[in-house]
Design goal:
The structure is a homodimer of 464-residue chains. Chain A has 14 helices and 18 strands. By secondary structure, chain A is an alpha+beta fold. In chain A, strands 15-12-14-13-17-18-16 form a 7-stranded antiparallel β-sheet, with helices on both faces. Chain A has a 5-stranded antiparallel β-sheet with strand order 5-6-10-8-9. A 4-stranded mixed β-sheet of chain A has the order 1-2-4-3, with helices on one face. Chains A, B: Keywords: FAD, Flavoprotein, Oxidoreductase, Transit peptide.
Chain lengths: 464, 464
């Protein structure tokens, strides 16, 4: 560890942590826990942009990898320092710098938690629409790095659609600003959008100007249950095709529902469900009625809609679903928390395909997620410690990704590539597409300093 | 010209034009006509992606510049072949390839005119929301290259926000696909968004999958007149701040109105005006009423709202305004068709600043444009042939750009950088920001084959 001494030339020594506890805590994220040993040589907690610049610059000079680390909630190993070096923990840069309600903008440091953005602007009647379900436990920096999506994405788009400007430290330590505080610009390359979703491999975000929106005057939430999963998935497709103006439309299959009941103590019916939310400034009942008529055409068994606070419990449950399905049965181990997205016309067939795989192989695969985006979260669960079952589980898991790619979809809707999806990059983007991305990476980070081992399939073995 | 013979090894000879007429026709765009002589050595009309790939590849090998050319309606010299070589005219690649209404997608070749997209999907009840005012005379390829915006951008975003997938030929002739047909993805770098707005300097778009939307059930258009320009600009700001749900909100100042009257034979009042359009599936009168109350707080003199077709004339006039202000007085010459955008809080002051410059110097500067985006189109008009007046005019024109940058805005809201705005790149993005863009350019186009002389301030003298 003593070879990390140069870091204290770059930043105040109190910001450099070399102890085992800190280093171990940065060796994993939610995806890799217990599977990958990637303890960094040092953890640095910068508190200013200059700190970030200084650390990245000295590491770049010395060939020491720097892996930005946010809240550690990544699901593809995105922030795991597989080449060791420095884990750059951004959570101390957590200031809300400025709120400009009349411009619908807020400037934040990357370590600000998503929910803190909403708290900072609630008094102005504003909110940050694309927050992921993990909004209260994940940071803006992590969301930018993965171009996160959430339940509101079906109406409002992804995190990347709500960023006006980014301050970024590049691999050589240069500090740059990309984007504009003007709502629209055609000035030069869209570098801001290149940084979004690049998982810390092209630069470290040190400040973000986010765009906000007025909290809708009318919010209604509700739950529809269906007799069959086919009906539920068909109803979602039909709602999207008919442009029912939903702000959230989430599928929860019967397997996921029963796991939620056992883990969270809820009393969901043992049936496929669709959770919906409607946002409007007037006429919200019209949209609720429109949804009802669409759902009725798919033999909806029940459809209950209430006011905002009545639905709160529903969304709280939905947010905890990811953890519930991983943890409900301690004797079952998840293969990987998968996330694919397909064109909406392919959504019902893709859900059916997954359930057929599940039945055929007798393996539970709960499905849920942002149905309106054609986005499916699924978890292949196998007996803990059964290597043969794990091998088969991985095969099933990968079959789903391959199916998504076959029908024109993507291997990752909102979790990024990280370690876990690297093997699908060539299949999704073609050799030429991956090569173009690699060209950009090599140009902006010629020494491979920033988050090495991620995104690209040729960048070392898969440690997962 | 005989040195262009190698082109017929790459594509069928009938697609290569060496005659003066064709070459002269590709020497300019709307911005440079009469100001720049940049006749290409050859014009090539590819009809397939392979044609584009072959031409770009042989040119790249031989160091011959290739400048993609669409409809020639650019306002910053974006497609003018200042280094000669090949003008790659994409207008023969004008097929609508596929329409998938249930996925809200259309696949088109780049030479398809914007209005043709709407015609192709109207029968399915769909439209392409971000079309620029020039939609009937400009192509999708040109719009993608400039990340064009339009009147609908205030509600729907820019062209770049409505692209799911692009097929692109890179500088070495490689054919790649960027983006996804899934509505959302976090798979690898957002190369699609890097290509958008790169003005043909990073690749040539050969196919685009555009996202569509249902035509709203209720459309209302109207016109508000105000006693003062301050009132009009303040009313726009207040409407945006209050989130009145407008689909278009356009400012037309009294100077522009009177020029429209003289050139187009219209009978607009000689007063500052705001044109508005409302889109909704229900409750549109609520939004109209909301707008009325906001406008009344700014002493609106009149506010007339009619059904869709009544407003058609208004929008037709608005679309022709750009030409009208350039041409109304034949003894006046425009300095440059400028386009800036500022944060909406700065919009009223920026409009006032321009009018003060105009009055102070006795120079007409009509202002109009997409007010809700903080986007101002302005034209400094000087006596034709008066060099001293032209020098002063250029100064005024540049003062406006500098003002926009000072208040956090951009030097170009929707026209791109091209030749005309290169000098402001450093000021807007900083030396580091421009250098990062240049790094990307040099990596993806190491020989500088694609549209050389554009975007970057260091790339040769300004021929404008």
């Amino acid at each position: 560890m003593s070879e990390m001494g140069f870091l204290t030339d770059a930043v105040d020594g109190s910001k450099v942590k070399l102890g085992d506890g800190e280093r171990d805590r940065h060796a994993n994220d939610w995806a890799t826990e217990g599977r990958v040993e990637a303890t960094p040589d040092a953890v640095v907690y910068p508190t200013t942009t200059e700190d970030v610049s200084n650390v990245v610059a000295v590491c770049d000079e010395r060939g020491v990898p720097v892996t930005p680390y946010a809240a550690g909630t990544g699901l593809e190993g995105n922030a795991v320092p597989v080449r060791r070096g420095v884990s750059l923990d951004m959570t101390e840069m957590d200031a809300v710098l400025d709120v400009r309600p009349d411009d619908f903008q807020i400037d934040v440091e990357p370590g600000v938690y998503g929910s803190a953005v909403n708290e900072a602007v609630e008094g102005d009647g504003l909110f940050f629409p694309p927050l992921p379900s993990s909004g209260s436990i994940s940071t803006i920096g992590g969301m930018v790095a993965n171009d996160a999506g959430g339940m509101g994405t079906v109406r409002y788009g992804k995190v990347g659609d709500w960023i006006d400007e980014l301050e970024v430290v590049l691999a050589d330590g240069r500090i740059v600003e990309f984007g504009s505080k003007a709502k629209k610009t055609s000035s030069g390359y869209r570098m801001r959008d290149l940084i979004v979703g690049s998982e810390g491999t092209l630069g470290v975000v040190t400040r973000a100007t986010l765009r906000l929106k007025g909290i809708p005057e009318q919010i209604r939430g509700g739950r529809a249950t269906f007799d069959s999963l086919d009906d539920a998935a068909g109803a979602v497709f039909d709602a999207v095709r008919s442009e029912v103006d939903v702000a959230k439309i989430e599928l929860v299959d019967a397997t996921a529902a029963s796991m939620a009941n056992s883990y969270l103590g809820t009393d969901l019916p043992d049936a496929p469900m669709v959770f919906v939310e409607f946002h409007a400034n007037h006429g919200v009942e019209r949209e609720v009625g429109f949804a009802r008529s669409v759902f009725e055409a798919h033999d909806v068994a029940s459809f209950e809609v209430g006011a905002d606070d009545e639905a709160d419990e529903l969304w709280e449950l939905r947010r905890e679903l990811g953890v519930a399905v991983r943890s409900a049965n301690p004797s079952l181990e998840p293969v990987h928390a998968g996330d694919i997205a397909v064109p909406i016309t392919e959504y019902p067939d893709t859900v059916r395909y997954i359930k057929e795989l599940s039945e055929e192989h007798g393996v539970p695969i709960p499905c849920f997620g942002h149905a309106g985006d054609g986005n499916i979260h699924y978890l292949v669960l196998v007996e803990e410690g059964d290597d043969e079952a794990m091998r088969e589980g991985v095969e099933l898991y990968e079959k789903v990704v391959e199916h998504a790619l076959e029908v024109g979809g993507t291997c990752t809707g909102e979790h990024g590539i990280g370690l876990g999806k690297r093997k699908f990059m060539g299949r999704e983007h073609g050799e030429g597409g991956v090569r173009a991305m690699r060209t950009v990476k090599d140009a902006l980070d010629p020494n491979g300093t920033l988050n090495p081992g991620k995104v690209f399939p040729d960048d070392g073995e898969d440690p997962l």
